[in-house]
Amino acid sequence: MNTIYIDFADLGDYEDFYTQLKEKLELPAHFGDNLDALSDVISGELKLPLHLEFVNMSVDQLEIFEDLLTTLEDVEDKVEDFSFAYYLEQYDDEEGEGEADEETEQ
């Protein structure tokens, strides 16, 4: 299975997400930067099996990218050889500094 990691540590918006996605996946030239296009390309044009992992997501990003997560959940239900997971950044100390540790998987 091909696993692609998208690091959310430096992502602020969907434009940043699509830029990183295009760097990691061989998307067709006609790919549009929107959720419908992402669903379509996973459902019919990408080489499967494929697993996407979103790492270092913040709680704020869960809200910003809620539609993305919902779209990928729908695609995961429909496309047999596609899966994804996301992992929240968590900190060991009280001030929010330190290494990220354990994960939250969807």
From TrEMBL:
Name listed for the protein in its UniProt record: Barstar family protein
Transmembrane feature ranges: none
Chain ranges of the Barstar (barnase inhibitor) domain: 1-84
Family, as annotated: Belongs to the barstar family.
Source organism, top-level taxon: Bacteria
